[in-house]
Design a protein that fits this description.
Helices cover 38% and strands 16% of the residues. By secondary structure, the protein is α/β, with parallel strands linked by helices.
Length: 398
C-alpha cells in the first residue's frame, strides 16, 4: 500500500505536475472491463484521444483491453481470473478500499470513466480529476430497492444489503467532493449527480461512431431487436419476453451476452431468438435489418437507441432516464409510460415501425457523433490540466 497523499478537493486547480506540457500527462481509470459494452466504448474514446495515457481498471479482461486497443497500456488492479470476473459484484464491500490503496503514477490530470469505483483512484501527486460519470453507483443510490429485491433474500440479507448500500453512499459522496469537474452524457444523470453528490456536471453527450452505424439502404426484415448487456433487473429484458409471449405472430431477436443470459433463455417463448455475443460488424447488421428496437430499461443514457437511430431504425423505449433525451416520439420512435408488461405490450400493439423516416432518425443521431464528442472532452481535460477555465458554451451538448 502506498503512503497517503494530500486529497485534492473539487473546484481547486491544485495537484498535477509543476509544468503542464502542450500534451498533458493523463491517467485514465475505469471500473470493470468484464465485456465490451457502452462504458468501454466511452473509455476507448478517451484512450484514443490520449494515446500516451495508461489505463487502470479495477478489474478487466485482457481480451476486452485488446478490443479497446489498450492492451499495451492497461493494468487490472485485481487479478483477471474468470472466477473473479464472474463474481466481482460480491466484493462490493471491499472494493473501495482496494481502489484507494492503489495509487497511480504522477499525472497532470486523471480522466475517470466511472459508474462504480473508478473515481476513487488517486495519483501520488493528487492530480485533479475529470470524471465522466455514467451513473452514480446504482445499487447505492438510484436502484437500491430493485437490487435489494433481486439479491437480498430474507430479513437478515435485506438488513445487510441496506447497511452496505448506506456505507457505499458515504464513501461515494466523499469521493465525489474530490472531483474537479464532472462530465456526463445526459441531463438525467446530471440531475442525479447534483442530487446525490451536490456537484454540477457538464453534459457532453456520448460517443457514437456514425460512420459505422449507418443505414444499409435495404428494406428492414420482420423482427424486433433487443441489443446489449444482459443484466437483470437492470435491463428488464424479461418484460419483453412476457410481452412477446402474448404476440406469437411477432419475432424478437436478442443480441448480447451477460450474467442473465441463461435465465432469460430458460423463460423465453418460442418466438424469441438469442444470438449471443456479436462482433462489431454483426451488431451493425442486425440493427440495420431490424424493423425496430425495443429498449425496456431505464438507462442513464443508453447508447443502443442512438446507434440504432444512426442506422435509421426507430426505437420503442421505456419513457424514463436517458431515453427522454435520445428518443423523440413521433420522429425517431415512441416511448411507453410504465415499466410493466402491460404497458410495453400495449405500445407494441400500437407501434408502426414503417411510420418513421430513416433520414430524419439518422439526423437526430448525428448529435452524438464520436468526433465532436472527443473534441469536447479533450478541450475540458486540457483546460483542467493547465488550470484554465473551461469554455462551457463550447463543450456542452445543447
Amino acid at each position: 500500500m502506498h503512503d497517503p497523499t494530500p486529497v485534492h478537493h473539487g473546484g481547486e486547480t491544485g495537484g498535477g505536475l509543476e509544468r503542464v506540457p502542450s500534451s498533458p500527462a493523463v491517467a485514465i481509470t475505469h471500473d470493470f472491463m468484464e465485456i465490451y459494452g457502452g462504458a468501454e466504448r466511452v473509455t476507448q474514446e478517451f484512450a484514443s484521444a490520449f494515446p500516451d495515457a495508461h489505463l487502470t481498471a479495477v478489474l478487466g479482461r485482457r481480451s476486452v483491453a485488446d478490443r479497446m486497443g489498450v492492451a499495451d497500456r492497461f493494468t487490472s488492479v485485481l487479478p483477471p481470473s474468470d472466477r473473479l470476473l464472474k463474481r466481482y459484484r460480491v466484493l462490493a464491500p471491499v472494493l473501495p478500499g482496494v481502489v484507494r490503496a492503489h495509487r497511480l503514477a504522477d499525472a497532470d490530470v486523471v480522466l475517470s470513466s466511472s459508474y462504480a469505483f473508478a473515481h476513487l483512484f488517486r495519483t501520488r501527486n493528487a492530480a485533479p480529476q475529470v470524471c465522466y460519470c455514467h451513473s452514480p453507483l446504482r445499487f447505492a443510490w438510484s436502484m437500491t430497492d430493485s437490487y435489494e429485491e433481486e439479491q437480498a433474500k430474507g430479513a437478515v440479507a435485506r438488513r445487510a444489503f441496506r447497511a452496505l448500500a448506506a456505507h457505499n453512499r458515504r464513501i461515494d459522496r466523499r469521493a465525489a467532493q474530490r472531483v474537479h469537474t464532472y462530465l456526463t452524457q445526459s441531463p438525467y444523470v446530471a440531475r442525479q449527480i447534483e442530487q446525490f453528490y451536490g456537484q454540477r456536471a457538464l453534459v457532453v453527450g456520448a460517443p457514437v461512431d456514425c460512420s459505422r452505424f449507418r443505414p444499409s439502404g435495404e428494406p428492414p426484415e420482420d423482427y424486433y431487436l433487443i441489443c446489449g448487456r444482459l443484466i437483470e433487473p437492470y435491463k428488464r429484458v424479461s418484460l419483453a419476453l412476457e410481452a412477446f409471449r402474448e404476440l406469437p405472430g411477432e419475432r424478437l431477436v436478442i443480441a448480447g451476452d451477460g450474467p442473465a443470459l441463461g435465465d432469460l433463455q430458460a423463460k423465453a417463448p418460442p418466438n424469441v431468438t438469442f444470438l449471443g455475443h456479436l462482433g462489431d460488424d454483426a451488431v451493425v447488421d442486425v440493427m440495420q435489418k431490424c424493423k425496430a428496437t425495443v429498449f425496456p430499461s431505464r438507462d442513464d443514457f443508453g447508447l443502443i437507441p442512438v446507434e440504432v437511430a444512426a442506422c435509421g431504425r426507430p426505437v420503442l423505449a421505456y419513457g424514463a432516464g436517458g431515453a427522454l433525451h435520445t428518443v423523440v416520439p413521433g420522429r425517431t420512435g415512441e416511448t411507453f409510460p410504465e415499466q410493466t408488461v402491460a404497458s410495453l405490450l400495449g405500445a407494441l400493439r400500437r407501434f408502426d415501425p414503417s411510420a418513421y423516416d430513416p433520414a430524419v432518425i439518422r439526423e437526430h443521431a448525428l448529435r452524438w457523433d464520436r468526433g465532436p464528442f472527443t473534441e469536447r472532452v479533450t478541450a475540458i481535460v486540457r483546460a483542467v490540466a493547465a488550470g484554465e477555465p473551461i469554455d462551457e458554451a463550447a463543450v456542452t451538448l445543447s
